[in-house]
Amino acid sequence: MPRAKSDNDRKIFVLDTSVILYAHNSIMNFAEHNVVIPITVLEELDQFKKGNDTKNFEAREFIRLLDKLSKDQRIDEWSPLNGKTRGDFKVMMYHPVNEKNANVIFGEDKNDHKILNVALHLQEKEKSKKVILVSKDINLRLKAKSLNIQAEDYETGKIKNITELENTGKYVMDNVDPEAINKLYEQGFIEAKTILGTRKRKSNAYYILKSDKNSVLAFYNSEENVLERVDKRLAYNIKPKNAEQTFALHAIMNPDIKLVSIQGVAGTGKTLLALAGALEQRREYKQIFLARPIVPLSNKDIGYLPGDIKSKLNPYMEPLWDNLKFIQNQYKETDKEFQKITELVNQEKLVIQPLAYIRGRSLSNIFFIVDEAQNLTPHEIKTIISRAGENTKIIFTGDVFQIDTPYLDSQSNGLSYLIDRAKDHPLYAHIKLEKGERSELANLANELL
C-alpha cells in the first residue's frame, strides 16, 4: 500500500463486518491510513460473540482489541492505533445522508445499507480524503460502486499468483540423460546435481523425468541432496492410478513429511488416498481423525435440518464414510483387513467428525486428515496446525476453485494460504492431482460442464 506523503493524503477505510470475521486484527493492516468501524458492524459482531466457530473467536477478539485500543477515550472520536506508523480509528454512528441515502435508493432498510450510508457521509464530510469501503461481500462492493463509493476486497494474506501456486510441488523434465535415469532405476537414488544441475531445488519436490527412451518418477530429498526413485505402492489395497497419485501417496507415507496438502477437483482421489495411507500406517499413531468443516446448504444453519445433532451432521460426514466403505470393500467381509476397519471405528481409533468437534483438542500421536480445506480461513488452518503435538501428521485436501463459503475465494482461502506460505519447507509437501479417476462420467462433468 503506497504511503501517504501528508496528512491530507491519508485515506479513510470503512470496514465491513465480513472483514472483521475474516481477521480480527485487520484494523491494524492499513498502514498510516485511518480506519472507520460503523456502529452497525459492532451490532452485528454482538450476534457472533457466542459459539466455538472461528467467526465467534474473531468477533470476541476484535471486541477485546477495540476495548484495548480505545482505553478511556470515546470510541466515536478519532483515537490512535498502536504504533507510530499507523493512523487513527473511530467507530462511527449511523448517519442519514441528505442527497444519497442507501435505504431509499435500494428501497430497503438493512444493515448493509447503513454501512453504505456511513461511507456516503464520510465522502461528504471528508472531501479532501479518499474514502474506501473494504468488504469481503462481493454484493456489498457492487452496491457501493453503484453509489460511486470506491470499494475493495480485504487483500492482506491474499495469494497474488494462483496459477503459479498450482504448479508448486511437481516438475516435469524432458531430455534427461538416459544413463542418469538408468542409474536412478538401478540404485534407487542419484545425486541431485547429476540431473538437476544448477536448477533451484525445493524441499520435497516431485519430478517426472523423461528421456527419449524411458522415464522415471523421483522425489527430491533435500536433507541428503539426492533424487530418490518413487515407485507405485499399495496402501490398504488402494493403488495409485497415475503419477500425481503416486506422489501424493509417497508424501502421505513419508514419516519425515509432517504436513501435506493435496489439491484437485472432485474425483481425483484426494481423500481416498489420504485415508488409505492413514490406515496403512495405523500402527504408528494412536488415532486417525478424519474431519471436514460444516458448510450449511444455502448458508442456513444446521438447526434448520430435522432430528438430533447426530442426524443433522450425518449428511455432511457421509462423503467421508463413503471413502471408508470403498476401502473396506476392497476386501471380503471375512478378511481381517475388512474387520479391522470396523474394529477401529468401534474402538474410536478411527474417528470421523465435523472439524468443530476436533478443533481445540490436543493433537499428539494423531494422523489428522482435514477434508474440504478450501472452506477454511487462513486463521483456521494456522489454528489446526498449531495444535499438532509429537508424532502428529496433518493432511489437508481440497479444491481451491470450489469454495462453498461466501467470503472466501481461490486467493484468500486457507488451503491456498497454506500452499503459498509452507512451500519449500522441509516438513511440508504439496501435490496437485490433475486426472479424475472416479469414473468416465465424473470426468465428463469436470471437463465439459
From TrEMBL:
GO molecular function: ATP binding
Gene3D superfamilies: 5'-nuclease, P-loop containing nucleotide triphosphate hydrolases
Pfam families reported in the protein's UniProt record: PhoH, PIN_4
Keywords, alphabetical: ATP-binding, Nucleotide-binding
InterPro entries: P-loop_NTPase (IPR027417), PhoH (IPR003714), PhoH2-like (IPR051451), PIN-like_dom_sf (IPR029060), PIN_dom (IPR002716)
Gene Ontology CC terms, in alphabetical order: cytosol
Domain PIN as annotated: residue spans: 11-142
The family this protein is said to belong to: Belongs to the PhoH family. In the N-terminal section; belongs to the PINc/VapC protein family.
Name of the protein in question: PhoH-like ATPase
Species: Algoriphagus alkaliphilus
Source organism phylogeny: Bacteria, Pseudomonadati, Bacteroidota, Cytophagia, Cytophagales
